[in-house]
Amino acid sequence: MARVVVDVMPKPEILDPQGKAVAGALPRLGFTGITEVRQGKRFELEVAEVTDAVLADIEKAAETLLSNPVIENYTVRVEDQA
Amino acid sequence: MRIGVVTFPGSLDDVDAQRAVRIGGNEAVALWHGDESLQGVDAVVLPGGFSYGDYLRCGAISRFSPVMTTIVEAAERGMPVLGICNGFQVLCESHLLPGALVRNNHQKFVCRDQRLRIENASTAWTSAFEVGQEITVVLKNGEGSFVADEATLDRLEGEGQVVARYLGADPNGSQRAIAGVTNAAGNVVGLMPHPEHAVETLTGPGTDGLGFFTSLAERVFA
After folding, report:
1. What 3-state class would DSSP assign to A73?
2. CATH superfamily of A2-78
3. What's the longest Cα–Cα distance across chain A?
4. Are B42 and B66 in contact (CB under 8 A)?
5. What span, in angstroms and rounded, lies between the C-alpha atoms of B127 and B112?
6. Contact yes or no for A15 and B148 at CB 8 A
7. Is A8 part of the contact surface with chain B (CB cutoff 8 Å)?
8. Per-residue model confidence as pLDDT tens digits over A29-46
């Protein structure tokens, strides 16, 4: 078994109200020095083995379902085996 | 006209939409998300609500339901489709309409009577209105902020694809105060506010929303 991670983030030009709310709460808890927060999503996909075909499929899934290319960017990476 | 109203798991306003369709002089046909058949309807309304719990992104999972596969094909052939609120989100996720709807810029759910200006009265769903007409319908959303890149916004404005705009204070951070858009052909319309809640004086702010449900018939019998 292997794990492929897809990270999805709002595009830089898209306002991220959730990230802003988190950024607003941090100083209230004493966490100063954090100037900006962007909130995204992480998908952990389990596959039997990592092949070029599997990665191509996951790339397609990331583009069609896991992210909305109008407002989000994604990255696909294979997680190191522990 | 026979107008189908789709019920997804988590749809909220499907029964109100059916009622508005009937008050508008049409026959309402209940359609089910898991059913590919459109039962021969002339047009489809995708109602408001929280289909699939808004999981992943609003409308993202509904977009791949069996009924949507058929609706996307039919819409591309010219069948009129109106998406209200969550239905608008489904249409954007389906790429039948440009842009996307993201969380309100102020983070809060908004529920109020909202004034709109009709910007395009030649779509399948807005021909009962006049350009520049001001109407009041209900607005209720948490993720109703319309966004698109500048080039897309310019194209929408240039081609007259902005259907309605918010008047007064900005309710959710939508770019260029856009409340609704249409596709290039004018048969697919997405609207964030809820005209189906403004078809009877007893339960709404007035009857200004009725035009969205009478336009189709007026167009056909004109």
Report:
1. strand
2. Phosphoribosylformylglycinamidine synthase subunit PurS (3.30.1280.10)
3. 48
4. no
5. 25
6. no
7. no
8. 999 999 999 999 999 999
